[in-house]
Amino acid sequence: MERRFSRIKRIAITGPECSGKTTLARHLKKVWNAALAEEFAREYLEKIDSYRFEDLDAILEGQLENERKAEAEGKSIVVCDTDVLVIKIWSEVKFGKVSPLVQTYYEQTHYDLTILCKPIYQWEFDPLREAPDENDRLRLYQLYYQALQQEGRLFLCLEPELDQP
User: 32-68, pLDDT tens digit by residue?
Assistant: First the structure.
């Protein structure tokens, strides 16, 4: 008897800013004919002057809603242009704490694979970006790596060659 699995595969793209997450997510959407869960934080932050710790719960809820909408497209793969880990690490670094809601969803949200992007690209100004220093972004990368490893998540590190076409 042939066995079929119809469960949607969820792929999270994670890592510090200027590491190519959005570019990779859009590329995978195209080559895999996948649904794309866009990054909600950018949409949210563009509408306000500054953000507070409490805003991260709203950003989390919006991100999860984008993931649900992408799943509803009925494609076999959903590529998530960011994940709960980004919000968790962002919260830890920016505010020194993580809300119970973010922590709970971090522990309960499942991705079949997480792709951790290394910040090897030149930082580009964007009013929503906060880490222009390369060393800061590499330190953040290590936080992502350690968190994924400690949690036993299935992940791979993407360290592309800059001179490749």
Answer: 999 999 999 888 988 887 889 999 999 999 999 999 9
Q: Minimal CA–CA distance to 94: which of 41, 47, 43?
A: 41
Cα-based distances in Å from 59 to 40, 52, 88, 91: 6, 11, 11, 11
Nearest CA to 25 out of 78, 73, 64, 65 is that of: 78
Q: Are 67 and 12 in contact (CB under 8 A)?
A: no
Tokens 């959005």 belong to residue: 22
Q: What does the alpha-carbon distance between residue 133 and residue 35 come to, in Å, rounded to a whole number?
A: 33
Query: 50 by DSSP, 3-state: which?
Result: coil
Three-state DSSP class for residue 35: strand
Task: List, for residues 131-150, the tens digit of each pLDDT value.
Answer: 545 677 788 889 999 999 99
